[in-house]
Amino acid sequence: MSPAHTPRATHGPGLPTRKSHAKPGHLLPAVVALSGIELRTFFRDKRSLVFVLAFPVMLLVIFGAIFNGTISGGGKTIPEKQLFMAGIIAAGVLSCAFQGLAINVVSERESGLIRRLASSPMPKAAYFIAKVVRVLVTTVIEVAILIAISVLAYGLPLPRSANGWLTLVWVVLLGAAACALMGLAYTAIIPSQNAAAAVVTPVFIALQFISGVFFPLSLLPSWMLTLGAIFPLRWMAQGLRSVFLPPQLVMAEPVHSWELHRAAIILLLWALGGLVVVARTFKWRGPRVK
């Protein structure tokens, strides 16, 4: 989001003190305007495109070339690479919704942009909604790219039923919303723009290893399974495996079930919990912003 498109602050140093008295009807136009700015800015920034969209594609291609074994479950055998492709698609959602968003918000906070927005008559909720809209749009594009490569280059089967497509949609959208709110909440502990990548990236990488993105969950120790089950990525990956893998492969899961109801509950809890944390801890001004 560019400062040129935002209202100027009208207060001196310190946190914004001017309250927004915008009527509820003013929220939608603000969301539409900010969402448009968010999307235009994102797609014009080549670094963002590479960092957020290209990295999961690179992982998909690299691991697609490395893994050539097979995996079995319930009497069905499939190429091993199809197992981790569902996980990498889930990691693509995390890349767009958590990693990229958290770093972007800290950058805007340090530049003073968020403070100027908070000082304007714009409803503050519009800022967060526009961020989530951007995440949802870029996530859908990322997932479409990853699925296309997986199907065309590696033979990943598309969902076989309407229920499979429905599961794909809700896992991706609910997962993206949960990760976006998690990313917004996480910005509260990032001290500066210079530290953003160093604070966010290790978490992004660690979550992939403990969530069964690269390896079958059966290979992970019990403590890692328990830890991974706390976070959204594990349930996005498991939900997507239920979409793309043969039903017999459910026997390769730790409890021999896709646990879709549990996945939906945990993703929803992360979304609601993230919303509460953001409302209580979000910082509208960076430490060096006057």
Describe this structure in words.
By secondary structure, this protein is mainly alpha-helical. 67% of the residues lie in helices and 3% in strands. The protein has a two-stranded antiparallel ribbon. Strand 1 and strand 2 form a beta hairpin. Helix 2 packs parallel to helix 5. The radius of gyration is 20 Å and the shape is elongated.
What's the helix count?
Answer: 10
Helical residues, percent: 55-70%
- Stretches where pLDDT falls below 50 for ≥5 residues? 1-22
Shape: elongated
* Beta-strand fraction estimate: under 5%
Summarize the structure.
The protein has 290 residues and is mainly alpha-helical. It contains ten helices and two strands.
Name the descriptors.
290 residues, 2 strands, two-stranded antiparallel ribbon, disordered N terminus, mainly alpha, elongated
Topology:
Layout: H1 27-44, H2 46-66, E1 70-73, E2 76-79, H3 80-111, H4 113-119, H5 124-154, H6 162-186, H7 193-210, H8 222-228, H9 232-244, H10 260-281
Antiparallel strand pairs: 1-2
